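dumping this here so i dont lose it again. seq + smiles for flavin mononucleotide
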Amino acid sequence: MNIIGIIASERKEGNTAFIVNKMLEGAREQGAQTQSFRFSDLNIKPCRGCWACHKSDQGCVIKDDMQKIYDAMEYTDVIILGLPIYMGQMSAQGKIFTDRLFARFSPRFSPYFKENAVKKQMVLSFNQGNPNADLFQPYIDYTNQMFRTLEFNVKEVPVVTDLRNGSIHDREDLCRELKHLGSSLASI
Ligand SMILES: Cc1cc2nc3c(=O)[nH]c(=O)nc-3n(C[C@H](O)[C@H](O)[C@H](O)COP(=O)(O)O)c2cc1C
C-alpha cells in the first residue's frame, strides 16, 4: 500500500502539515509506504492555460516540481490532500495543485488521458480556524464533488476545526483520530 500526502500550505510545521503527517504516521504503523510533499519545499507554478497537455500526450509542459507529484500519483494507492481554508476556500497552493491536475487526471477532457483514468483513492483533508464545522460545508461538498468528477474515489473528507487558539499539538483526541484514520487507509 502506497500513500502520499500533499500539504497545500506554506507553513512547514503548520496545522496542515501536522494533520497530514499524523495520518501518514498511522498508515506507516500499519505497514504502508508513505511519502509527503510540502508546498513550502516545492516550486510549483500555476497552470498557464496553454492547453498543450490536451493537444498531445506530452503531459504538462511546465517542468517544475509538479512533475514529482505527477510521478508519485501514478503509483500511489491513496492521496491525502491537506487543504487549509483561507478566505473561505482552499489555499492558493491547493488550487494551483488542483488546476495542474488538468494535464493528467481529466480523462473526460481529452482522449489522450484515458489510460490515466485509474481511480485513485483520495482523502480530502480540510482544516480551518473557525470552530463552526458547518460554516464551509457547501464549499467542501462542492470540492468533494469536483474531485469525484475528475475520477478520484474520495474516501474520507475530515474537517479539523477551531484552530485559532492553542496548539494543535495539545489536542490528544484529534491526534488519536487522525492516526486512526491513517491506519484505516492502509487497509483500503
Ligand atoms: C490568509 C488566511 C486566511 C484564512 N481564512 C480563514 C477562513 O476564511 N476561515 C477560517 O475558519 N480560517 C481561516 N484561516 C485560518 C486557517 O484556516 C487555519 O489557521 C489553518 O489551520 C492554517 O493551516 P496552516 O497552518 O497549514 O497554514 C485563515 C488563515 C490565513 C493565513
